[in-house]
Amino acid sequence: MSGDFDRAIAVFTLASGAAAVNYEVNIFFTFWGLNSIKVDTGRSFLGKGFLARIFNYLLGGRKTLPLSRLNFGGLSPVLMNGMMQGKNVATLEDLFAASKALGVNFYACEMAMHVLGLTRSDFIPEVKDVLGVASFLEMSDGGQTLFI
Amino acid sequence: MSGDFDRAIAVFTLASGAAAVNYEVNIFFTFWGLNSIKVDTGRSFLGKGFLARIFNYLLGGRKTLPLSRLNFGGLSPVLMNGMMQGKNVATLEDLFAASKALGVNFYACEMAMHVLGLTRSDFIPEVKDVLGVASFLEMSDGGQTLFI
Amino acid sequence: MSGDFDRAIAVFTLASGAAAVNYEVNIFFTFWGLNSIKVDTGRSFLGKGFLARIFNYLLGGRKTLPLSRLNFGGLSPVLMNGMMQGKNVATLEDLFAASKALGVNFYACEMAMHVLGLTRSDFIPEVKDVLGVASFLEMSDGGQTLFI
Q1: Model ipTM value
Q2: What is the pLDDT of residues C62-113, one digit of tens each?
Q3: Is the minimum CB–CB distance between C89 and chain B shorter than 8 Å?
């Protein structure tokens, strides 16, 4: 759900880590989480409806995610990416690419897409399906679910 | 735990969705989450003690929950409710009513109530019990627990 | 993950509550969560590298955690601690001490430590090990995992 840079790092670290040791991993992106799977990784006026377009512009994509603490107007995610690269730690883009490569399943929340005026084509092709939360709950039955 | 508008939407969407497919659902409201089950859905000076009353006034109830991102001084939850109604998506009030109607069990956290100076009568009658976290953990044993 | 005062309260309440009824409890501290287990509970320039030192100073330790809502520049956690003591509710320090005494296992996230330039000696001796997320996932297999 969260569209924070640091929480997105947590999502894709957990997902790629679990997929690497052969767990089946399903991620359900809802609300601000949808920002992470937009085709457009920067800011753009996506969506239908005036308010939806303003919201989507302000929210941006995977490369404009804010830090949940000490964001400093977007400077901190840039600094942190630099710190991660400088120390040879996987960056958000690396973790995102690894999750895709390791076969993590991406699902987009139908309701949140509807509210934000987004359609399937606003998202990367790796998104496997558009689902309601009830379908996702069924799919997750018997596994572990984390809310991030 | 969270008293954000968007996270409350997530709580009641998951709860009503799971209850609709016959899961037993228990919600443990603690800290800011208690705002969602106050009888008074607006701002009021609830609680015992000067600080508690100030905190409760600032926190408000279910109709004054802020958005976790882009809140714009409380304007965004209003806009978002409008967007949801305009698109025939269930609003927070709808999801809350559905959760109650589908028999989701509401529990209030004893410790947080004590700290915030709140009593049983500050909450809606549908709250089934006031519990400590240990009792809730026991109740949840064998099920899935999400922290929201 | 969170370094909020209120979420830290939730972590150590759940941990000590579960440990008290004989669950095995493992906490994986990552990102801002690492602030809770620093030896230095106040603000200090820990870490290697200029940026890491600035970040760590701003983040501080267990006694400078901010409230996730209505923080008022750090005043609220102080007020809330006072409210908790006044009502004989366990404070963050009490819950932290109880978690240690009840044998809750503390683990620090290797990757986050690396990014923030922190080493094992920056943390309290009760930290059992420094782990990657994959090792922690394996350790948690068969149990419940909450993301806080």
Answers
A1: 0.88
A2: 998 998 888 888 888 888 888 888 888 899 999 999 999 999 999 999 999 9
A3: yes
Residue C74 confidence (pLDDT):
84
In chain C, alpha helices (H): 5-20, 50-59, 75-86, 92-101, 110-115, 133-140
Nearest Cα residue to B13 out of C66, A72, A137:
A137
**Residue from A1, A6, A25 nearest A98 by CA:** A25
Which chain B residues contact residue C9 at CB under 8 A? 31
Q: Select from C18, C70, C144 the Cβ nearest to the Cβ of B58.
A: C70
Strands B105-109 and B127-131, sheet pairing: parallel
Taking the CB of residue A95, how many other CB atoms lie within 10 A of it?
A: 22
Q: Which residues of A touch B80 (CB under 8 A)?
A: 115
The dihedral over CA atoms of A146, C109, C65, B55, expressed in degrees to the nearest 10, equals: 0
CB A92 within 8 A of CB A9: yes
Which pLDDT tens digit goes with each residue over B107-136?
Answer: 999 999 999 999 999 999 999 999 999 899
- Among B17, B84, B144, the residue with its CB nearest the CB of A133 is B17
In residues, how long is chain B? 148
- In sequence order, the 6+-apart residues with CB closer than 8 A to the CB of B1 are B30, B31, B32, B33, B147, B148, C6, C7, C10
Cβ–Cβ under 8 Å, residues B46 and B118: yes
Q: How far apart are CA B39 and CA B44, in angstroms?
A: 10
pTM above 0.80?
A: yes
How far apart CA A32 and CA A25 sit, in angstroms, is 20
Inter-chain CB proximity B55 and C70 less than 8 Å: yes
Question: Chain A contact for B18, CB < 8 A?
Answer: yes
Query: Taking 90 as the threshold, does the pLDDT of residue C130 lie above it?
Result: yes
Residue type, B94: D
Residues 23-82 of chain A with CB under 8 A from chain B are 30-32, 49, 51-52, 55, 58-59
